[in-house]
Amino acid sequence: MLGTENLLLFVVTGLVLNATPGVDMAYTVTRTLQHGARGGVAAALGISTGCAVHAVAAALGLAALLAASTWAFDAIKWAGAAYLVWLAAQMARSALNPVPVAEAAPSAPVITDRRRIFVQGFLTNLLNPKVALFFLALLPQFIRADAADKPLAFLFLGAVFIFNGTLFLFGLVAVAHQMRRLGTSERTRRLLNALGATLFVALAARLALAER
User: Fold this and answer.
1) How many angstroms separate the CA atoms of 90 and 146, rounded?
2) pLDDT tens profile 34-65
3) Domains of the chain: which residue ranges?
4) Which of 11, 55, 67, 137 is most buried per CB count within 10 Å?
5) Helix (H, G, I), strand (E, B), or coil: what is residue 159?
């Protein structure tokens, strides 16, 4: 289909990779636990949009630049690590500072909150050069050597991966939302922020130490 082959194997491989713990999974779960299902969905859509940018970059050959250039890879890697540390700092501040009673009352997330969560999810994915290299390394294995339009095949496989990945994240949101119902007290909120801050610092260190 569209110059691709072994599509079922590609789908299974993608789902296995989606289930591997990482930044995207951590961000989706933490935002769901903090802001409910709507926050989790916003996070998932932001991450998927970042993946779409990486897929287009791979189709255009831009991802090859990251594979060939140490400077370009390191620049994006350190920017991503710094951004994760910034997110961790925001969570740590929320964990240390109690929320006034008026703000702590349960309410539906406002539109601006969901937009902020979406943008943060987008940036956490976009500023991870390993995602770009993933598309560059995996997708060509499922494109026929005689494909008439290889960029189109890249985009098709990228769309399949993003679609399945988004559904996986939505499922993760549903599970995390059920967990959130177990406790929404101020103490729980601060604990979740503290755990999230610790996790994102660890992920930032992991990204900073990543090699091409």
Assistant:
1) 50
2) 888 999 999 999 999 999 998 888 878 765 66
3) 22-98+107-208
4) 55
5) helix
